[in-house]
Amino acid sequence: VTTLTGGELTSGVSAPPGGLRRIGSARWRKRNLTFDKITFFLVFLVIPVAFYLAFVVSPFVQAAYFSLTDWTGFTPAMNFIGLSNYAKLFTDDTFMQAMANNILMAVVVPIVTLGLAMFFATLVTVGGSTKGNIRGLRNSSFYRVISFFPYVIPAIVIGLIWSQIYDPSAGLLNGILTRLGLDQFTSFAWLGDPRTARWAVMFVIIWGLVGFYMVLFIAAIKGIPAEVFEAARIDGAGRFRTAMSITIPLIRENVQTAFIYIGILALDAFVYMAALEPGGGPDNTTLVMAQQLFTTAFTKGQFGYACAMGVVLAIITLAYAGLIFAINRIFGGKSEVGE
Amino acid sequence: MGIYDTPLGRRDFLRGSLAAAALAATGTLGACATSGTGTSTQTSAPPAGQVSDTNPFGVESGSTVEAVIFKGGYGIDYAEFAGKQVEAKQQGVTVKVTPTTKVAQTLQPRFVAGNPPDVIDNSGAGLIGVNTIRDQLAELNDVIEAKNYEGTVIKDTIYQGVTEPGTFDGKFIVLNYVLSVFAIWYSASLFEQNGWTVPKTYDEMLALGEEAKGKGKYLLGWGKEAATYYQTMAIASAIKEGGDEVRLALDNLKPGCWSLPPIQDVFNGLKRIIDAGYMKPGGSGTVFTAAQAQWSEAEDFILYPSGSWIENEMKDQTKSGFKMTGAPEPTVTSNSKLPWEALHSTAGEGYIVPSQGKNVAGGKEFLRAMLSREAAVNFAKTKLASTIVKGTVPPDGFGSTALQSQIQMLEAAGSNVFSWTVLNPADLYGMNTDQLVVWNSFLSGDSDVAELTKGLQDITDKVANDDSIKKVQVS
Q1: Which of A73, A163, A299 lies nearest to residue B433, judging by beta carbons?
Q2: Residue B426 pLDDT
Q3: Neighbour count for residue A115 (Cβ, 10 Å)
């Protein structure tokens, strides 16, 4: 279906400019559809939309349909079974636990990561000396570069590095702790104890992402005219007050975008978990929906059921994005400080 | 996301972010989609080539055999070797061997489209659950009834009972190629040095734990992805203790199967070892290969329950002079239904021939080559593991103590060789992931026998009560 749509659109607009001019209606002339404009639309609108339909919307629709079937994933045969996959899903305590884990992560990871990122970004841009020009701490460009390092490493590598650091017997972390005389950490399984596993995993994700969001916020803060900060300083605002009343309101939209992206990542988290806790962690405390989806599809051969999980995950993700918008609105997003 | 005439306004930005959110969300969702469902359910055509004694399946001359081989611990060179054998025996036939590390992910679309390869080594962590593709596999009875390249009927050259784990509801569809012996493994040299003997019951294990502790070593250890090796050991012990009744209850997912007395006795035996502190702590947070190196290289613990692939797996991380040797899994009491020497042995590396493949005869011919002497000996020699073909390992085990002990254990067990179908290692219903969680907390000492039993029973019941999962009746 999608290819057809693409084809129609393409043949409709790729006619030579002369042909279009001959249409001659006032409407066409008024919109002044030159060859340039048409090719521009074609390249930047029609083709992307066609691709979007073919590779994003159509799989989306297909997966939603499969979620209503008992498809095993390895045959062309499937039976329509209505909503029973969803009924099964909401009584499946393993999946519900995975969902709860994801939601906890989607709350904790964005707040901690972005909080830290904002703190560091403020320090290296406007948090410097209160005398003279508005500037960051000394050597701020150095901090900026090193804080970005973890983001340069692929997530899977980060996961593998940290699974070694957390190793109970030969890991760096327990090595340091026991060297410091904390003997209760001898062979302590950070990733294997239900009390610590989820925090250990979240720490890794946060560690890997702070640098990136810090750079994002730095770029945003750099876009604020220095006069605004100077004015605030003249009015007697300290660093904290400046951050809360000037910086954050002025880069509100960036913070919102950051929240959405990192929230989506926390709702997925598949890569980190594949490296750190491939089995779902102790008592399934680190199991995420994407992992459960993967096992259900490929190991258990229940693609229909897995698709239902995918649909639920997508809905939760959209709901999360909606929630972030709503929160932004409630806390004065409408006052349009940024524009 | 689109073209805006005005500078990026707030509304547009909002729209853009929403679209971005939707886009990211579909990343996972899209993974479920297919690339179109071809509904070609062609029945396997009659053999196109001439059927003869040297060409029992009628492979067509000039045809190609596509073999997709799991590339894990054994590599794919042994399969390429077998491919060469086919090419030498069947004029004009070419064999194309392709490696894969994720069988299910790679081949899933091809099963849907109805053009799977001719023969697949369905192994590794990403294998296709056989239960889902059972109806699409060719029966392999004619393979083992055919004569091998030396002229002997294949059935007479393979170990007893090796086709059973590949037989589902009476249909033999999975040819498990590599013989695995499950045992508890130890360093014969370390045991000799300390004057230790191999424990035959759980009480003896407990006593050995005390002695090991005296030498600053733990008795047992585990890794988080391999916690269910203890389940495999426990089931084997329970079957030895209680006989077939235990095996059938577990295989047929009977309600309350985990509460059978022999299983409970084994769990209690293990629990005493764990509570005594003879289990190396931290396993639930240790990668299993690292845990295994703690046994084979650092000798932090002295016994490890595993399959006979352990030698090959730890080849590069074994202390020199570590005489890796296996012993049968312990029993609960000394008057168990099966003797201590009874051995849990089954075959792994499950080869399947999809019935919709283009060259089913070629797929079978490939298996015939693998089961012939030359390829089987080549495998044993290069991989230090026996195939299901008998007599390919000389008494010196090519210099490997583990292989020697494997053959000795098989000889001592005689006809007392058993295996089971549903649970690990065959894992027919994909329960291992859930079981790992339960076992990790039990081995850590965080849960007791009652919690372990309940956890395992819940997992079993969930599968048993799920009508959408086809069950295999085991007898």
Answers
A1: A299
A2: 59
A3: 13
